[in-house]
Backbone:
């Protein structure tokens, strides 16, 4: 037998031995999956999962028997949301028999230069979501007066973010985008942060998806044991009239300071409520944990106010004002 033929036989024998070594454990095992046991089989058990998966089922329930109200949603301040992103919230309002109007879009666009005050004349509630353009002083006064007369105001904030635009040819532009709610929220003794909250120990599958719970039993929100905010910023109650409704869970930190504190994420002061997140209204998050219950409470807050009509100045007041500015003939006052 030639040397080349012997070499070929040798290679064939080695190949058979290797194949037998590979399949021997399979041949020795019993049929089916019962005979195969993984060394780390415990990780395949659902009870051993380390990831906390919050419940993602539920429907928003609102008392449909309440009087029909008009809710205005502001879109005139470069607000950081689309209609699709708040669709569950709007749908729930409409299904409960309430009217939703968007200020600053469509036919309302013509009123934008006159501020939001004109839209508030026929409204019972106002929703302001992540405005990126500051409210003018006259608008702040109008919203404050609206709340003082019983109108309900819901403000939703978001943390600041960095936007990069442009390209290599036109140049890259980096812009810091912040929520401009301070001018209004401060009227109700509520402060809104700029950084984002995160929790590396307890979260909803993402360190920025923080859990929020009532601070104590006396300030609990019925049915809301745990909400999930995917992009939250702190909310603080600074006055005696304001109270914190929800706080982030323990070991939550703030991006700007890395401090481990108890951060409020929702507060109420009279007819105004401020929540440091808007993602809980979204189609992908509204049914997570107790978010749908929280949305129901937010809607009920908006539609259960009792706004009084704005008192018009009397004829006497008008006459006094005119007299002070433009004295009548014969008066000794100098214009």
Residues:
């Amino acid at each position: 037998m030639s040397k080349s033929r012997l070499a070929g036989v040798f290679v064939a024998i080695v190949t058979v031995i290797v194949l037998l070594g590979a399949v021997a454990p399979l041949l020795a095992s019993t049929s089916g999956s019962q005979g195969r046991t993984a060394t780390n089989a415990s990780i395949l058990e659902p009870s051993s999962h380390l990831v906390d998966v919050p419940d993602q089922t539920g429907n928003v329930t609102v008392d449909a028997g309440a009087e029909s109200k008009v809710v205005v949603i502001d879109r005139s301040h470069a607000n950081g949301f689309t209609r699709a992103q708040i669709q569950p919230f709007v749908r729930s309002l409409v299904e409960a028999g309430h009217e939703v109007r968007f200020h600053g879009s469509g036919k309302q666009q013509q009123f934008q230069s006159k501020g939001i005050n004109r839209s508030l004349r026929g409204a019972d509630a106002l929703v302001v979501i992540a405005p990126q353009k500051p409210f003018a002083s006259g608008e702040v006064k109008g919203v404050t007066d609206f709340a003082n007369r019983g109108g309900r105001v819901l403000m939703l904030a978001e943390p600041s973010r960095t936007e990069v635009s442009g390209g290599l040819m036109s140049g890259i532009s980096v812009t810091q985008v912040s929520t401009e709610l301070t001018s209004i929220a401060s009227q109700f003794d509520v402060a809104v942060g700029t950084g984002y909250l995160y929790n590396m120990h307890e979260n909803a599958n993402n360190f920025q998806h923080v859990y929020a719970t009532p601070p104590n039993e006396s300030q609990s929100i019925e049915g809301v044991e745990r909400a999930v905010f995917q992009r939250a910023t702190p909310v603080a109650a600074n006055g005696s009239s304001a109270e914190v409704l929800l706080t982030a869970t323990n070991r939550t930190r703030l991006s700007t300071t890395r401090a481990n504190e108890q951060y409020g994420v929702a507060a109420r002061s009279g007819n105004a409520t401020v929540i440091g997140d808007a993602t809980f209204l979204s189609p992908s998050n509204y049914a997570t944990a107790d978010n749908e219950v929280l949305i129901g409470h937010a809607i009920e807050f908006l539609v259960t106010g009792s706004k009084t009509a704005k008192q018009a100045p009397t004829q006497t007041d008008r006459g006094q004002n005119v007299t002070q500015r433009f004295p009548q003939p014969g008066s000794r006052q100098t214009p």
